[in-house]
Amino acid sequence: MPIPDPAVILITGASSGIGAALAKRLGRAGRTLHLQGRDRGRLDEVAHAVRELGGAAVTHAVDLADHDDLDRAARRLAEEIPRLDALIHSAGAMVIDAVVDARIEQMDRLYAINVRAPFALTTALTPSLVAATGQVVFVNSGLGLQSRAGWSQYAVTKFGLRALADAYRSEIEDRGVRVMTVYPGRTATPMQAEVYRREGRTYAPDDCATADDVAGCIEHGLEIPRSAVVSELSVRQRATPG
Hints:
The protein is of the alpha/beta class. Helix content is about 45%, strand content about 15%.
């Protein structure tokens, strides 16, 4: 299998949503999962679930929006993890606002979390990825392919994340590292609940893909034999009747 046992895996945004679902799918005996998140309590719950599955879990309470905190963490992780089999960028933040109503502080925060953090972590951990001929997953969004009204700030960062992944793939693939971008549609996560609220609609999780649906697709992409490369993967919610 492309993810070996034992293996070392780092997941950002692991305290909830797709990141937490991935941790529970990938955690097993012989694997060490490094889990990043801001909420220490929820992060510890996910780590406990990984340990119940037989895996080892190391938590990292890091604020990706804080440049200094992130940069310190990136340096520390690069020192602590000499070989990294998979780096999964699942953390993300969103804002819904028209361009004319947007505040630059919002844009700065989204850039820090959605673009700068994965850039900094990928840069710092590239030697570890190369040492393990590892894999990198960028969890993007359908808005990384096509923007729409009210989503300018979020889409700008997701288009940027797509550019980062495409460039990095072309730079690193001849060194044995595979790079995959995943574009989930509406997914039943805490972030999606906030999206519905901002849109003035009642949250309907049954109309969304589940976080585990998306995590399962990502796991499958990671496990595909090395003779193939899944460079992009789109996951959409089921069509609703009527």
